[in-house]
Amino acid sequence: MNAFPLTPTVVRAANAEVVADGPSSLIGLLADLPEVTVNRAGLRAGSPGAPPHFHTRATELFFVLGGSLQALTGEEVVTLGAGDLLVVPPRLPHAFAPAAGEEADLLVVFTPGMDRFDYYRLLERVHLGRAEVAELRATSERFDNHYVDSPAWRRARGAE
Question: Does 6 map to a domain?
Fold first, then answer.
């Protein structure tokens, strides 16, 4: 017997909530279910993307819909193009941003789901000056988002 209801979830693009976590990044909130959390990230050229971090409970999948993405996986930095897939297991530090001079359009999937949409809304409030960065740090356990330092990412992004 199946423990989950056998009903599909349909999210129409026109009905998806969209938040801005910076001046060059939009996140379309698609599904936040116990089994999976899904968003679509649009990163304009020059976007800082997501800094190095890891998750303790979820695997994160990135599918590049368009453009070019630079991603940190552990201590390695890879560049992905349209149609490429990256799967990051729990506890592996990772980061991502558009490759230099490029934009990136991504489908991002977490499994299991993480009740994560409030995290993206908090990022937007920080961006708009309606919340403090300290609130992000205070929610690291709740949203399973743990920031780390990465010399490899700093070098790849020209920050050293």
Answer: no
Place of tokens 């990256």: 86
The pTM assigned to this predicted structure is 0.93
What are the tokens at 99? 């490759």
- Running DSSP on this structure, what letter comes out for residue 14? G
| CB-CB contact of 106 with 43 (8 Å) | yes
Q: What confidence tens digit (pLDDT) does each residue in 107-148 have?
A: 999 999 988 999 999 999 999 999 999 999 999 999 999 999
* Domains of the chain: total: 1
Query: Which residues, in sequence order, are bridge partners of residue 108?
Result: 39, 62
Residue 159 belongs to some domain of the structure: no
Sign (positive/negative) of CA torsion 28, 105, 78, 63? positive
3-state secondary structure of 37: strand
